[in-house]
Amino acid sequence: PWFGWAYPKVSDITFNGFSGPTINAGTLSCLSARPCTNVNVDNVNLKVSDNGFSCQYVSGSSQNVNPKFCY
Predict the structure, then answer these.
(1) How far is residue 27 from each of residues 5, 50, 54, 70, measured CA to CA in Å?
(2) Is residue 51 within 8 Å of 35, Cβ to Cβ?
(3) What is residue 28's predicted lDDT score, i.e. its pLDDT?
(4) 27: which residues sit within 8 A by CB, 6+ positions away?
(5) What is the bridge-based pairing of β-strands 36-56 and 11-29?
(6) pLDDT tens sequence across 24-70
(7) Is the dihedral of CA 62, 15, 64, 49 positive or negative?
(8) What is the chain's alpha carbon radius of gyration, rounded to the nearest angstrom?
């Protein structure tokens, strides 16, 4: 059986005010049964040489983010 309560609920996270060079901007992977919610990304400027952000089952907001966040 599936025990949804056994997986953590990730919510109300803020990434704010960082910059710099990187190969990949980042990955945030959540579960369809337990999506990450209210993930806020603000004032992030990354000089990416390969991949931008990658997300799965994530919602929230972003502003002033380069490269563009997943939503």
Answers:
(1) 24, 13, 5, 9
(2) no
(3) 94
(4) 53, 54, 55
(5) parallel
(6) 999 999 999 899 999 999 999 999 989 999 999 999 999 999 999 99
(7) negative
(8) 13
Residue-by-residue DSSP string for 4-64: GGGSPPPEEEEEEEEEEEEEEEEEEE-BTTB-EEEEEEEEEEEEEEEEEEEEESEEEEEEE
Type of residue at 33: A
pTM over cut 0.70: yes
Task: Residue 66: name the closest of 28, 22, 35 by CA.
Answer: 22
Query: How many other C-beta atoms can be found within 10 angstroms of the C-beta atom of residue 22?
Result: 13
Q: Are 32 and 57 in contact (CB under 8 A)?
A: yes
Residue 28: strand pairing partners: 55
Torsion angles phi and psi, residue 24, rounded to 5:
-120, 140
pLDDT band at 6 (very low <50, low <70, confident <90, very high): confident
